[in-house]
Design brief:
Layout: H1 7-30, H2 34-53
Length: about 60
């Protein structure tokens, strides 16, 4: 037979892992410095300008 497990402990561990995963996602989304945000905005603007510059006239 298998080992006896505590379902309440398993449920709490799973909830804790879910919260930790959500916290990691929030750190990646909101935990950026102003310099990181400015760099990403500049990169996006550069990519948009490059794409618009390569556009063919219709």
């Amino acid at each position: 037979m298998g080992d006896v497990i505590n379902l309440n402990r398993f449920r709490k561990a799973r909830a804790k892992a879910d919260r930790a995963q959500e916290a990691d996602a929030n750190r990646a989304k909101f935990g950026r410095t102003a310099a990181d945000k400015a760099r990403d905005d500049a990169d996006a603007a550069r990519r948009k300008a490059l794409l618009d510059g390569a556009k063919l006239e219709e």
